[in-house]
Amino acid sequence: MSAARPALDSPDQQQEWSLLQRSLHGLVAAYSRFYQGARWEPSTLPENGPAILACNHVSVLDPLLLVASNHRLISFLVAQEYYDKKWLRPLLDLSHCIPVRRDGRDIRGLRRARQVLMDGHVLGIFPEGGVNRQSVQAGIAWLVKGSGAAVVPARIIGAEQGKSDLRTWLRRQHPLLRYGVPLHFHRDAEAGEVLGAIMSAIATLA
């Protein structure tokens, strides 16, 4: 099975996207704004250069809200089981998403994620590694320290996961998305320090 590979020349800014990418972004934004009734604060994502967008994970709506509120391409770390869905894989490939195992030990996936950052693009992550999980994936600290990228904290309020993904997408929840001030870490920072600061920054956005 082949996996998504972020291209070195993958388009970053919205004006550089293909017609299909712009159309898909428009649909996601319209669904989020008009069907879900979502609101979001202005994104604090840098206009260019490498960045990690770190957000809490409360439902399958989360990546859609992050995409809708930004005009840069976001390559998400995606659980392998979602990438294995044949109908969903082409959509994930459009944004160069990276399939990873949930055990946090997928070295190949982490290396591809680091390459996205080294190429100057945006990587979207959910530190818990799954919806409403309490653990934090240690690989995130490795990505931060290895790339030197700014970390933009974000928090979604007012959304929750239903009994199925489909029910969650169909239920109108009126979520709110907040963005925090970008964080910058020294390459010598301890992993625990990096993870703690990121999770604390996300928590303060409640």
From TrEMBL:
Pfam families the UniProt entry points to: Acyltransferase
A GO molecular function for this record? 1-acylglycerol-3-phosphate O-acyltransferase activity
Keywords, A to Z, come to: Acyltransferase, Transferase
Q: Which residues form the signal peptide?
A: none
Q: Which residues form the Phospholipid/glycerol acyltransferase domain?
A: 51-159
What pathway or pathways are given for this protein in its record? Lipid metabolism
Q: Which CDD domains would you find in this protein's record?
A: LPLAT_AGPAT-like
- GO biological process annotation, one example: phosphatidic acid biosynthetic process
The name this protein goes by in its record? 1-acyl-sn-glycerol-3-phosphate acyltransferase
